[in-house]
Each structure stands twice: as C-alpha cells, then as structure tokens.
Amino acid sequence: MRESGVTLVTVGVFSWALLEPHEGMHDFGWLDRVLDDLAGAGVDVDLATATASPPPWLSRRYPETLPVTAAGTRRWPGGRQAWCPSSPVFRDKALSLVETMAGRYAGHPALAMWHVSNELGCHNAHCYCDVSASAFRRWLADRYGDLETLNEAWGTAFWSQRYSDWEQILPPRAAPTFPNPTQQLDFRRFSSDELLAHLRAETEVLHRLTPEVPVTTNFMAMKFARNMDYWGWAASVDLVSNDHYLDAADPESHIELAFSADLTRGLAAGRPWLLMEHSTSAVNWQPRNLAKTPGQMRRNSLAHVARGSDGAMFFQWRASAAGAEKFHSGMLPHAGPDTRVHREVRQLGADLAALAAVRGSEVEPAQVALLFDWQAWWATELDSHPSTDVTYLDQVLVYYRALWRAGVRVDLARPEADLSGYRLVIVPSLYLVPDAALESIRGYAAAGGHLLVTYFSGIVDGDDHIRLGGYPGAFADLLGVRVEEFAPLAAGQQVTLDDAGRATVWTEDLALAGASAVRSYTDGPVPGRAAVTRHAVGGGLRWYVATRLDEDGTARLLHRVCAEAGVGALVEAPAGLEAVRRRGAGGTSFLFLINHTDSDAVVPGTGTDLLTGVAHSGTVPVPAGGVVVLSEPEG
Ligand code: GAL
Predict the structure, then answer these.
(1) 23 falls in which pLDDT band (50, 70, 90)?
(2) Which tens digits make up the pLDDT trace of 558-613?
(3) Distance, CA 278 to ligand 1 centroid (Å)?
(4) pLDDT reported for residue 507
C-alpha cells in the first residue's frame, strides 16, 4: 500500500459477523492488528461501523429484522444488507456494536474517519413489513397531524380509499392495480427518512464517544441508485463522500461520471468531498462487465478530483478470491502486482501525491444551474402516467450531456436553492414542484434570469395533485404558453420540426400566450404547433421545450440559449476535452484538462503541469487519453 501511495483505507465494512460472532461476544483481535499495522505504516483508517450487514445469528434469533417485499415475501439472509430500516431490534443491536467499536478505537492513531454502515439503502431501501407499517403511520401522523388532512392530500375520495382509522393505513403493498400515487410518494419519502434516521442514530453515538473524528457514509449519487433524497441527508455528515461506478454499456460513461461528481459537489454545497469508491477496472454486477482501457481509470479518478473530490478511493484493495464479488477488479488483481492495473494504481498514487496542493480548493462556481430533485424523480416515474417513455434521469442527462459536450460547466442545484448567482437555470422534466420550489424558480425568473424548462414540468404540487388551469401548470404563465392536452408519441415514433430536426417521446397541443414559437412540428399529432418557445420578459428569457429533441437539435438550441444568456465554455477546446478549474486560498488556481479522445489536443492555458513539472505558456498540449493539471499563475 505504501508503494502505491495509499494514504487512507476503509476497513471493516461487512465484518459484523467476524467482530461479534455470537450475540454480545466480541472478537476484535484481528481488527486491532489491522489498525495497528496501518498506523505503523502511516496509513489512515476510515473505520466502518460494520453494521451494513447483520450476522447470521441476528436474523436467526430475530427474524422480524429481515425486510419484506411489497408482495409480502420476507427476504432471507445470505446476501447482504438484509435488514428492515424501521426495525427497533436491528437498530438496538447495531448501535450496541457501534458503541463497543467507538469505545475500543477512540484515540487509536490510525482512526481518521468513521464510515457509517455502507451505501445505506443499496438493497433494502423499502421494507413493507408490519413494523415498517407502524413506523409509516407514525411518520404520516407527524406529517399530516390528522386523518382528514391525510385523506385530502392522498385524494382518497377516489376509488373508495377514504381512511377512517389510522390502523387502516398500510405501505403501498402489491395491490390488484395501481396503489394510490401520493401513498407511494409518501412511502418513498418515509423510507428515505428511516435510513437517514439510522445514519443519525449511529452518528450520534460516534460524535458522543469520539467528538474529534469526522463521520461520513458513502452516498450513491449516481444513476444506479435513486431511493435516497440526499438533499435532505447531506447536512447529517461531516464530510460528503460518494461511490461511483461506470455503466459499461454507456459509450460516454465519462459524462455520466462528471454528472455524478457535480451532483456530489452540489450535496457538499461546493466544498471538497471524497470519492469513497470506484473501480480500477471491471465490476461484477452488470450484465457485461467491461475492463477499463489503459489510462481510463486515471482519467476517471482525476475527473472526480477535478470536480471537487480530495482523493480517489476504490473498492477493493485486493481482488477477492472467494465470495460474490470475486470477479470485481481490485487495486491488486488476482494476477498480482506485476500487472497493468496495479502499475496504473501506483501511477495514480504518484499523481495524487503530486496534486497535494489541490486539496481543499473548491471548484469554480458554474454559470449554469441544472435543477435536480430526487422526489421529483420518484414522482415522475410513478405508474399510470401519460407515457412510460418519459423518465426523469433521461431528461436530466440529455441536457447535462449536451452542456458537457459544449464545454459548459454546470452546478447541480436543488429547486429550492438560491439561484440568483446563475446566468441560466435549466429545469428538465420537473414534474413535481412543491410551493417552495415554485417560489424559488419564479423569483429567479422575475429577477430577469434566463430559464429553460422542458416538458412534463410543473404538473403537480408536493402532494402529487395536478396544478389546474392548463399545462405546464406551475410554469404556464411564467413561460407564456398554455397546453390543453398532452400528445405523447407512440413507441419509436419520430416527428419532424421546421428546422428539419427530429424529436421523439412527447409533443403537446400548445397555444402561445405571450411566448413566440422558435420551432414547430411539421408532422405528428400536432402539426403546426410550437415545439420550442421563447418568452422575453423584463431582462430575462424563458424557454420552453415541449418535446424530446434529438442530440443535434438539443445542442443547437443550447448554443443559442447559452449565447443569449452570456454563458460560454470554460476553455475553447476540441470535443471530448474536459476542462474544470478549482480555486484555492490565496489566489491559487488549478486547471484540469482531461482528454477523453484518441487524438492529441492543444488548448489555451498557462502554468505548470503538477503531474509532470513542465511549464506551459499560452498553449498546453494534452496527449490523447492524457491529463494535465495546470497550477496557474496567481492574479
Ligand atoms: C458498492 C459497495 C461495495 C462493492 C461495490 C462493487 O455497492 O459499497 O461493497 O459491492 O459496490 O462495485
């Protein structure tokens, strides 16, 4: 590890069964040795509380702690994370282990950070058991106060669902047809809150026993996980950390990586964060697990650092010989240290050491905010909607990718955030808009901001009730449009626009009410109707995109929208060259240039490359697949 430049190791994540082989009987000998060895080698430890997976004795003695599916099937132990987030028995046993661990390792020289559980909610985000049902009712009573308010919020006059007693209320278990949508939405909110409560309960023990040690838990702010509302979690950790894994089927997975890193930075409120896990090469849990190409892991790691991470950690140090993840790459592969992957690990260790000055600096704020909201994600994809082709992350990523390709940096922001510093705010398919979010977006536009809203936005309030008066309800007046009826497209259907562009998924029977048409359909269900509108009010512009434009059409539209908002690329660079700047205290700045293409590139820039020590003045060559980190001259 020392030779690889490893400075921090996460230890003990899934080791409850080793640490407490029988209830109340502990064996810490092996962990003592590991921590002592690491301390002796000068390597810090991010010590897991080990509660992520209960040991076999726990589920055997307390089977009620096992999670239950919507159909009522109790999940068996044998995998990992088989616990009900609302179980008081599980909570009690977990906290008792945390208390013992924190007491034992308080003051240990290796202990640098606590790692609560692991990827909370990765496999057990929703439990439908009777214990969860009671907890759900308590959560609802807290939210609504009385049954009448709940009945109103859930719209229970429909389909004979009116509740006359709290005990009648259940989680949205598998029903003959669509369960009540607000019940589903509230259950998702409740489930996220239950896991957050677990995080807070463990953290409270750790803060009490080791007040000087920061506490984190690894978030999954990425496309593979959507069940936790991390906007509500971020304030509960001392340091935001995130896990990210590439989708091997995505030819532009480096863009989705950038999105995940930007989202994590948003959660960290712009402060540095930590990449807790990624992979040196292939994972084992996708259908086809592609190995990373030479240099790809280095680009991945340094792209996270460029976007605010103060390090790059991996699952796992040594590729396992046994168990479910034995085909997952590691820093030390099955074939041993004399391997390409391990040589790249050592190179990365040297690179990160050379970037020591970057630590603590912050990514320069972007000119564009892209609004992102987990609750809107859940609500958008509830059942019985106009089209299953309207999915949330799709729209978010369509706009994120187009801006990434244009070299325009964005910050991911929650809809309720202070948006006043941005030149342009993009609102992709924000179906659910509670009043506070609406006020925030309205306020931004009223102050002369440039706003771009896309289809299926502003449709419902925080209770999933339609905002009446025509679509896009919350935003119709703001955008100067009025939609009487949606006109979703058939599977695979394409429509043509008057600039010869193509669109798919969605169209709307849209009437102009102040806005002017920028593009219109020439065919499809609503020929002649506007597909893209522009509404100039005060000093600002409000754009509405009522269809899913193709890649080229999105790029052309954003080119114009950005130009009118005075938004530009950070660096004039060829396509596929990623540029991000971090600024440190005392006027230091670091320009990261990452070349994701097979061609050498030259971009404007001045400063010393921290990775090579070479000074550049005016232009910087960035080799194919390579990375340059310029320490820029001050002032
Ligand atoms: C994460 C997890 C790790 C490992 C990894 C595999 O979900 O935290 O323990 O399973 O993924 O990619």
Answers:
(1) very high
(2) 999 999 999 999 999 999 999 999 999 999 999 999 999 999 999 999 999 999 99
(3) 8
(4) 98
Q: Which residue from 466, 425, 427 is spatially nearest to 448, judged by alpha carbons?
A: 425
Pairing of strands 215-216, 577-583: unpaired
Q: Rounded to whole angstroms, how far apart are CA atoms 272 and 361?
A: 7
Q: Cα dihedral angle (466, 470, 476, 480), rounded to 10 degrees?
A: 180
Token duo for residue 320? 């396992």
Q: Do the beta carbons of residue 584 and residue 611 sit within 8 Å?
A: no
Amino acid in the structure at residue 79: G
**Catalytic: 277?**
yes
Is the distance from CB of 533 to CB of 549 less than 8 angstroms? Answer: no
Degrees (nearest 5) of the Cα angle 492, 495, 497?
150
> Residue for token digits 């046994």?
322
CA angle 615, 408, 481 (to 5 degrees): 170
Residue 200 has pLDDT above 80, yes or no: yes
Atom of ligand 1 nearest to the CA of 13: 9
What's the chain's average pLDDT? 98
Q: Is 118 in the pocket of ligand 1 (CB under 6 A)?
A: yes
Cβ of 12 less than 6 Å from ligand 1: no
User: Strand pairing partners for 277?
Assistant: 243
Task: For residue 578, indicate whether it is catalytic.
Answer: no
**pLDDT per position as a tens digit, 397-412:** 999 999 999 999 999 9
3-state secondary structure 527-593: CCCEEEEEEEECCEEEEEECCEECHHHHHHHHHHHHHHHCCCCCCCCCCCEEEEEEECHHHCEEEEE
Q: From the CB of 277, is ligand 1 less than 6 Å away?
A: yes
Task: State the distance from the centre of ligand 1 to the C-alpha of 118, rounded, in angstroms.
Answer: 9
Per DSSP, the three-state class of 394 is: helix
- Token pair, residue 117, equals 């559980």
What are the structure tokens assigned to 608, written together? Answer: 């010393």
Query: Can the peptide bond before residue 472 be classed as cis, meaning omega within 30 degrees of 0?
Result: yes
What is the residue-wise DSSP string for 270-325? Answer: TS-EEEEE--SS--SSSSS-PPPPTTHHHHHHHHHHHTTEEEE--S-SB--SSSTT
Cβ of 283 closer than 6 Å to ligand 1, yes or no, is yes
